[in-house]
Amino acid sequence: MAFMWATFPAQATIYFFPDTNPVMAVGEQPKWLKDGRGNDGYVSVVSEVIPESTCTPLSSRGFWGDKKTQLVLSVTTSGFSREQVSNEIPIATFDGRDDGSECTSLSTLPLNVIPLTLLGNYSTFNPGKLAIVLNVKSASNSSQDYIGSAKLVLGAAALVMTGGAASAIGGIAATVGNPVLSEAQNRTNNLLKGMANAKTTIPLSWKKLRSGLHTVEIPIYSAEGTLKDAFPDSSDEAVKTLQKSTQFNRTKLFTVRLTFNYVNSLFNPGSTGANDMYASDSLSTSNVLNMHAMHNSLNFMQFLNDSSPSLLQIAGVAEGYALSNACSTGFVKLKKLGLSDLDTAIVMKSFIDEAKGGGDWYANPQMVKDCFNQVPAIQAYLEELYGQSTPVFVIGDVQDGVGKAYKRWRDKIGPVLADFRRALTASQEQREVLLKFNQKKDIQLRFSQELQPWSRESTSEEATPSAYPGVDLLATRRIRTIGCFIYKDPVNLAPDSPGAYFLMEDLAGSFWLGNARLSSRDEDGKISTLMVASMTPDWANYLASFHYPGGECKSILGRYRSSMALTVVGRN
């Protein structure tokens, strides 16, 4: 550590140094900050330099009135971001070259020395190693203009932000994308290396931040005297002694205050969590995609769609693996940007809404799974914000047709089978969901002759047979989805007890043909019987022969045919 000191006839010197015992204050701790484990919000740090008085002399008239002192306060940070460039960030300058013993001109702004940065993951054994270093740099009687270069960077920071917000100086070149600013920042970093430096390190961790750390205050002092009498060895030892001891006369010049701010989401900084953001106007597709991406000159739409072929166009027509790949590309981009899991869920939902021409795709659980199953933490926020993806009955779920009998069948069968599908695909407590759907009535489950009936493992605790054997079997089968609702036989158009054929698929990739009959009385439940038969290529062709304006039929048939093709290849 090198410290500037000058020798004169009296061998006296002046030192500027920070206190090594910063004063830390803890503020209100939001629940999301207290309970979170990372990737769930952001921290930013704003610096302020507060003089002790309106006049800050850098030396005394009688002792060092002839010295031309330049003083620069700066900070360096580490550990807050994996992509962070270790730049030295000037936060204030004091120019004492003109009448240094008089009131010195102070140049400073509230500066965002750490722009919004993702709160990292941490654990008991890995709390996160973070640090902020405050540098107090001085130079006397130098021909080099250190102040001018540092002021250039401070001025550039004022151009970055508008509207009275703290200027963002931490990585201004990256924020603005201006090579002139980048050159200024690099030049200033190189120049500041030539100044004497007294510094103090503030060790931090993600756990410490989550305790609600609000401010850190570091006093800055000056001391002057005769070097050979007090510190005969070196100026390094002099500063260390002055920082640790109170027996020497020292003058408090100013205080550096670092204020830590925490936000849960970019889209609603005042929110206390995902539940607080439900139905917020800030989550509209337009607002989300038009917001500027963090530390970037592009908005989120431009950022995600900045390459060819267009990710928006790919996602617009993609299903299955193609949609998974398109979403994966988006997730990787947003992760590099340093976006939280909550905000990633918001941005990707809005992006797919835009690609698909609206939010109807979210009513397709399989499509939601294809996109978000690869990122469970993000999917959890998605469901907390927008609710679980729930299939809704639309005309596309049933075969197209005409006539009063058809419309009556469609209007009754469609909603019931849509509710049945939702119950079959429930992620939790499936048996209870099925019983609730069928009004606490069992479904009589039958199997065609060529099909081995389904069975479930019994346990020693089951002393008596189940009161709901059909529902129990359906719950253990883990159905993925059902679709392709057709009536086929005129008997299924019966107004009192209509029926329908449909295709069934489970999570293991097995397929069956279902034939359900609705109950004639509401008190008997919604579905009275369900016949299950083997699925065959002939049935696939038959189901495909009908026109479906929408729904899941096409995708289920596609997966069935793919599975059959793989079976044939495996046999060969």
Structural account:
This protein is an alpha+beta fold. It contains 20 helices and 17 strands. The strands form 3 sheets. Strands 1, 2, 3, 7, 9, 11 and 12 form a 7-stranded mixed β-sheet that branches. It has a 5-stranded antiparallel β-sheet with strand order 6-5-4-8-10. It has a 5-stranded mixed β-sheet with strand order 13-17-16-15-14, with helices on both faces.
Write the layout of secondary structure elements.
Elements: E1 12-18, E2 23-26, H1 31-35, E3 42-51, H2 61-64, E4 69-78, E5 89-96, E6 105-108, E7 111-118, E8 130-140, H3 146-160, E9 167-168, H4 172-176, H5 179-192, E10 196-204, H6 206-210, E11 213-226, H7 227-230, H8 235-244, E12 251-263, H9 285-290, H10 300-304, H11 311-317, H12 320-337, H13 341-356, H14 365-372, H15 376-386, H16 404-424, H17 430-437, E13 444-447, H18 469-477, E14 479-486, E15 499-506, E16 511-518, E17 527-534, H19 537-544, H20 553-571
Parallel strand pairs: 7-9, 13-17
Antiparallel strand pairs: 1-11, 2-11, 3-7, 3-12, 4-5, 4-8, 5-6, 8-10, 11-12, 14-15, 15-16, 16-17
Helix pairs in contact: 3-5, 11-12, 11-13, 12-14, 13-15, 16-17, 17-18, 19-20
